[in-house]
Structure formats: structure tokens, C-alpha cells
Amino acid sequence: MISRLPTWVWIGAGTLALVAGMVNVVGLIGFEHQGLSHLSGTTSQLGEALAQGSGRAALQLLLVLAAFVAGALLSGLLIGGAALQLGRPYGAALSIEAGLLALAVPLFEHHHMGGALVAAMACGLQNALTTTYSGALIRTTHVTGMFTDLGMFLGNRLRGLPVDGRRIALCLLVATGFLCGGVLGALLFPHLGYRTLWLPALLTGSAGVAYVVYDLRRRTTTNTKR
């Protein structure tokens, strides 16, 4: 049940949605108007490029798709399992994401395709990190599913069917976080350019450190009670 989600999951979901919103808007503004945090639009653009016979554009888009998948693959190798569970190396995964976002900055500034690839890889890693927990599907790098769930839950409520209000709250949290990240990224980009990505890198790195500290304290407390 969504009501069983611990506080650290709620905080992490909101923070990572904010991060993804910032990364995506930087891609949309700065890198050939290319979204980086989800693949629906990228796949459509790939189809268009293939139909038009634009080999160079198709290759770039295909590489972005592959980089996102590679990030998800890396997350699967690091974390394993489908459920969120304390004790798994989320801190290491978040630290790697922070490093990828930081690396994207100089690559973008030198107009190198690698900037988009490592940023997309960071998003793929993040999206795979936040996954199924007790029947609640959490995705933080896109909000289509959250808006779909929100509409479905509201429709059920209008029919008089029981709906877990915390599930609606989770959808709103992720959608709002993603939106606020987009607003913040759009406001910062004219002043900082691609260095705007330093902020999401700092946030994910800090989240990784906070998780490690939290988990260590939890283990210490548990061992003390034994």
C-alpha cells in the first residue's frame, strides 16, 4: 500500500522529480531542443528522422535512447530487485548520477554530443532507481504515468469508489516537483548556461550522502537494540 511508503521515499521522489525537470529543460533549451529525461518524444523524433532519411539526426537520437537504457542497466546492476528497500546501494547510484550530470557540463559547453548522452544516462539511472514498491509505481523522470494515474483515481472517486488519497498525493508530488524543476532550470539557464546542471548534480550527490548517513544510523540503532 502507498500508505506504507516511508518518509525517505516521499522526500526522494519529490527531489528526484525536481532534478529530472531541470535536466530536461536544459536539454530542451540548450541541446538542439532535445528532451533528455524520457524517451517518448525522442522515439517519435527518431521515427521522423528515419522517414526523412536524415542519418546524422537518427544516429544522435538512437545514441540518446541507448544512453538512457544504459543508465537503467547500470542501476539494475548496482541495485537489483524491484522493490525499494533500505540497505541497497542507492547512495552509490545517486553519486554516479551526480558525477554524470557534472560531467555533462563541460561536454555541453564544448558542443560535444557526449553531454546529451551522459545526461540521458543519468536520467535512465534515476528512473530505474525509483521503481515499484508495494504496488505503487514511482517514476521521476517523466510525468505521463502520474497524470494518467491522477485522472484514473479522480474518476474512480467521482464514481464513489474508494481511492487512497496518498496515491493522489504522490502523483501530485512528482508532477509538481518535475514542473518546479523545469521552471527553475528555465530561470537559471539564461544566466548559467549548461552550468545549471551543477544544481541537480549537487542535489543528487547530497541525496546520496543523506541516504548513506540515514542508513548507517538505522543500522547502528538496530544493532544497539539487539
TrEMBL record:
<feature type="transmembrane region" description="Helical">
    <location>
        <begin position="90"/>
        <end position="108"/>
    </location>
</feature>
<dbReference type="Pfam" id="PF06912">
    <property type="entry name" value="DUF1275"/>
</dbReference>
<feature type="transmembrane region" description="Helical">
    <location>
        <begin position="61"/>
        <end position="84"/>
    </location>
</feature>
<keyword id="KW-0812">Transmembrane</keyword>
<feature type="transmembrane region" description="Helical">
    <location>
        <begin position="6"/>
        <end position="31"/>
    </location>
</feature>
<keyword id="KW-0472">Membrane</keyword>
<keyword id="KW-1133">Transmembrane helix</keyword>
<dbReference type="InterPro" id="IPR010699">
    <property type="entry name" value="DUF1275"/>
</dbReference>
<feature type="transmembrane region" description="Helical">
    <location>
        <begin position="197"/>
        <end position="216"/>
    </location>
</feature>
<feature type="transmembrane region" description="Helical">
    <location>
        <begin position="168"/>
        <end position="191"/>
    </location>
</feature>
<protein>
    <submittedName>
        <fullName>YoaK family protein</fullName>
    </submittedName>
</protein>
